[in-house]
Design a protein that fits this description.
heterodimer, A: alpha/beta, Nitrile Hydratase, Chain A, 2 domains, two-stranded parallel ribbon, B: alpha+beta, Cyclin A, domain 1, SH3 type barrels, six-stranded antiparallel sheet, 17% strand
């Protein structure tokens, strides 16, 4: 594949259809500018700032843009909140929809057949495969991203974190916690 | 299209293999495919791009990696739209005397292009359904692109939220215009979808356009 891709890139550059430096900048964007640390910042701010959390729950796209995160695959954001009684899990059964501005590009398993097929029919089994057994009396809500709405899970704030500032809290937030395959 | 891409509810497709945070591309070529797909001047939209990947024959679709599918779709679009000839594609060299284009996306414009808000909301007729309405997902089997998965067709759900009118993929994917239609989040109980063995507390929400729904 590497050789075929290289050949196509050389051809497109030679024909003036793409600019190699623009390709470098796009790769850099996805490797360094977006990723789950953006989402973690959103979550930590929601944990520490009730007014921000209220804005996040009513207009997530605008509240996330306040922190400077916006763009493709994040144009219509909805945040869903975990509680002691409720667990949320996000999937895209039809393709690979995922909130790029706050989580970056999805891990391979998120785009793979096993996850896409089973998350809707056996969410508890899927979460268990990631190491968390959800209690039977906890409600599980699965969100299948079938349109341009993109979902971000707001995990529960871990216990005994009262003394931590926003940056320290953000460090506790994991990618899988914001997809819903883990609880913090 | 009832293709293998519509895999919600299937079983037996293998184990989920977790991976650590921080891995973005697994080889440099994956990043180049991702970037070329964004930067190249193919005439397409997000729905047409999705449909093109759905058209990869099922056995190959299941075997190919994610970026192999992207590379195949990008190559097909470049060839179909005449941006690259079959000879050029095979040789990796521009045909002698071929005109040189100006790239659509310059390096300096990348960050702005990727961060720009791009709404899919459009003006259209007001929604027929409201939050709390009971609806049934239609038992329809379009042979083109659709975002109505098989596993909810014929099933009863409740409108959770109305989102206004959004670009309708079933039309947009086929170059028939955006044809905006009201979009709703619809909640289905796990028992309605999967039967009595499902946990009675559990639900699945999908975002479904009005033409996918009928009043129950």
């Amino acid at each position: 594949m590497a050789l075929r891709v290289k050949a196509l890139e050389s051809l497109l550059v030679e024909k003036g259809l793409v600019d190699a430096a623009a390709l470098d900048a796009i790769v850099d964007h996805f490797e360094h500018k977006v990723g789950p640390r953006n989402g973690a910042r959103v979550v930590a701010k929601a944990w520490t700032d009730p007014e921000y959390k209220a804005r996040l729950m009513t207009d997530a796209t605008a509240a996330i843009a306040e922190l400077g995160y916006s763009g493709g695959q994040g144009d219509h954001m909805v945040v869903v909140e975990n509680t002691p009684q409720v667990h949320n899990l996000v999937v895209c059964t039809l393709c690979s929809c995922y909130p790029w501005p706050v989580l970056g590009l999805p891990p391979v398993w998120y785009k793979s057949s096993p996850y896409r097929s089973r998350a809707v029919i056996d969410p508890r089994g899927v979460v268990a495969e990631f190491g968390t057994v959800l209690p039977a009396d906890m409600e599980v809500r699965v969100w299948d991203s079938t349109a341009e709405i993109r979902y971000l899970v707001l995990p529960e704030r871990p216990a005994n974190t009262e003394g931590l500032d926003e940056a320290a809290l953000a460090a506790l937030v994991t990618r899988d916690g914001m997809i819903g395959t883990a609880r913090l | 299209m009832n293709g293998v891409h519509d895999m919600g509810g299937m079983q037996g497709l293998g184990r989920i293999v977790p991976e650590p945070e921080g891995v973005v591309f697994h080889a440099p070529w994956e990043g180049r495919v991702h970037a070329m797909t964004i930067a190249s001047p193919t005439r397409s939209n997000i729905d047409a791009g999705r449909h093109q990947r759905e058209l990869i024959p099922g056995p190959e679709y299941l075997r190919m990696s994610y970026y192999e599918k992207w590379f195949r779709s990008l190559s097909e679009r470049l060839l179909d739209q005449g941006l690259v000839t079959a000879e050029e594609y095979a040789s990796g060299r521009s045909a002698p005397g071929a005109a040189k284009a100006t790239p659509r996306l310059a390096a300096g414009a990348v960050e702005d292009a990727l961060s720009r808000h791009n709404s899919y909301v459009r003006e259209a007729a007001p929604p027929v359904f409201a939050a709390g309405d009971v609806v049934r997902a239609r038992n329809i089997h379009p042979d083109g692109h659709t975002r109505l998965p098989r596993y909810v067709r014929g099933r009863l759900g409740v409108i959770e939220r109305a989102h206004g009118a959004h670009v309708f993929p079933d039309s947009n994917a086929h170059g028939k215009g955006e044809d905006p239609r009201p979009l709703y989040t619809v909640r289905f109980t796990a028992r309605e979808l999967w039967g009595e063995a499902a946990n009675p507390r559990d639900t699945v929400c999908l975002d479904l356009w009005e033409p996918y729904l009928e009043r129950a």
